[in-house]
Design goal:
By secondary structure, this protein is α/β, with parallel strands linked by helices. The protein folds into 2 domains: 273 residues, Spore Coat Polysaccharide Biosynthesis Protein SpsA, Chain A; 86 residues, no CATH class. Helices cover 33% and strands 24% of the residues. A 5-stranded mixed β-barrel has the order 6-9-7-8-10, surrounded by 4 helices. A 4-stranded mixed beta sheet has the order 12-14-16-17, covered by helices on one side. Helix 1 packs across helix 4 and helix 7 runs antiparallel to helix 8. The longest helix has 16 residues. The radius of gyration is 21 Å and the shape is globular. The termini are far apart. The mean pLDDT is 94.
């Protein structure tokens, strides 16, 4: 039985800085606004195109910061002006997704939404949409639903979902109960998870009836739920700006995993659909290098930018070239060089996760302007 998608709305939270991709990703131009994967489309645009066949252009909502509104509109000219929600400040995913759910429920009390990050990469859009349709089928039965990614390696960069028994839902034959969420594990633990076949990567995709999501949010973060409902009640009225300015800064800054997903799992109300569509959060330069290497396995050095200005000898890795300088690399395996007008990063793929700590040091340095 195929689920009815007439009331399905897609929400794209387009926030965060992507600090592990500094200096390419900056506060004023985060990674979702870049063509990180070399597909010819930015990550945001790719996400939009992936979702349109599921819900049409009129039923996609983007939640983003005020500073990014202009470029979001430029990259998504089809986006309905009523469907862009601008955050005064970053309050994390509970507030962003909660407000989107409250607005959609007010406009359509039967609305069912799916939240999909603006800065992830999917290899098979067809298989992705198949998984979303199953997720909608499970959500129609009252579940909060997530799509978990079939691991391809024992990664320590992602959280994990432990899948339990099948749920026997007609519109979602592969749906399983979620037994637990697990934070990013050690390598040894990740190896055990992958070999067991019981764990999936947590990709942060959530599908639910808007009213059901708000119900769980109210049970676990009542002040936050009341706040987003108050803002939504004033949305599209002459009170909108006043209410946002008063209420938004008071909302707790907390991820939706902790206010909705994990509590729902403990109640037996969370389902997971295994995803077999190829996924990457392209969260650091090691991931970016891997994505490009898969596309061109013969390249010793992957270049994002002007390849004619990059010369290498007995070196492998990734060079991101955003200047007119010639970059020469010799004798370094798995190097990462990111050259921009005002900042230069040199590291290795093995140390790519440490860029986040480097950014923290820069924030406290005498040159925070480069962030």
């Amino acid at each position: 039985m195929s689920p009815n998608l007439d009331n399905f709305y897609a929400v794209i939270p387009a926030g965060g800085v992507g600090s592990r991709l500094w200096p390419l990703s900056r506060a004023n131009r985060p990674k979702f606004l870049h063509d990180i994967a070399g597909t010819g489309e930015t990550l945001l645009r790719s996400t939009w195109l992936r979702l349109v066949p599921l819900c049409t252009e009129q039923r996609i909502m983007v939640v983003t910061g005020e500073a990014h509104a202009g470029e979001v509109r430029e990259q998504l000219p089809e986006l309905d002006g009523e469907n862009i929600v601008l955050e005064r400040s970053g309050r994390d995913s509970s507030a962003a997704i909660g407000l989107a759910a409250a607005i959609l429920e007010q406009r359509n009390p039967g609305a069912l939404l799916g939240s999909f990050a603006a800065d992830h990469l999917v290899h098979s859009d067809v298989r992705f949409r198949r998984a979303v349709r199953e997720a909608v089928g499970a959500a129609e039965e009252g579940y909060i639903v997530t799509i978990g990614i079939q691991p391809v390696e024992p990664s320590t960069a992602f959280g994990y979902i432990r899948a339990g028994d099948p749920l026997s839902i007609a519109g979602a034959p592969s749906a399983r109960a979620v037994e637990a969420f697990v934070e990013k594990p050690s390598l040894g633990t990740a190896r055990r998870y992958v070999s067991s076949g019981e764990y999936l990567w947590n990709a942060g995709m959530f599908i639910a009836k808007a009213a059901r999501l708000l119900e769980v949010l109210a049970e676990n973060a009542p002040e936050l739920a009341a706040g987003v409902r108050e803002i939504a009640a004033a949305w599209d009225t002459d009170r909108q700006e006043e209410v946002i300015e008063r209420v938004w800064p008071t909302l707790d800054k907390i991820a939706i995993d902790y206010t909705v997903a994990e509590p729902a799992a403990k109640q037996g109300a969370l389902a997971v659909i295994p995803g077999f569509f190829g996924w990457d959060d392209v969260g650091d330069f090691a991931s970016v290098s891997r994505v490009h290497l898969e596309a061109d396995s013969d390249a010793a050095i992957t270049v994002i930018g002007d390849a004619d200005r990059v010369v290498s000898h007995e070196a492998t890795g990734l060079v991101v070239n955003r200047t007119d300088r010639v970059i020469a690399v010799a004798g370094i395996p798995n190097v990462v060089v990111v050259d921009t007008e005002d900042a230069l990063l040199v590291t290795t793929c093995a140390r790519a996760q440490q860029v986040k700590e480097l950014v923290a040091k820069l924030r406290d340095s005498s040159h925070p302007e480069v962030l």
